[in-house]
Amino acid sequence: MPHIVIISSSVRKGRNSHRTALFFQNFISSNALASVEILDLKNYDFPIFEERLRFFENPTLLMLEFASKVKHADGVLIVTPEYNGGYPSSLKNVVDLLYDEWRKKPVAIATNSAGPFGGTQVITSLQFSLWKIGAWTVPAMFPVPKVQEAFDENGAPADEAGTHKRATIFINELLWCVEAKKRME
Hints:
Pfam families: FMN_red. The protein is α/β, with parallel strands linked by helices.
């Protein structure tokens, strides 16, 4: 069974995008699609980016743990809010902190916003950063408009049938890429 890590990237007070991360954790595990864990950036105290992890003289244990979890995952699902057309600095920090860990890693991106567009403006800039460091971004999107209405605080969707239908397509794309990568190794 593949192992997926979900990066919940918002560290903001009162964040809503974490609801999407909780939804995917529940969805993946309850459908026995993969083993899954959330890497909540709110639980990590990463410094402002100063250098890639491999060049740190004394990396913190949390940095090493995070890097190991990303490296050993079969795939990564990033859940990110859109802040003024971009993604949060907490996510940019960890994208840039790692390098080899992202290489050829299947990465799916779920975007969120409080407004009607679901964070779709952020996807190209995040995909570009991931592409530049060698990640394999999955050609599927999962935008969540009005995230505060789409999921409750525990990740339960307001429209269960519709959300599950979209999530099935999205996660199947990630799992297809995970399987394809395994076959190419």
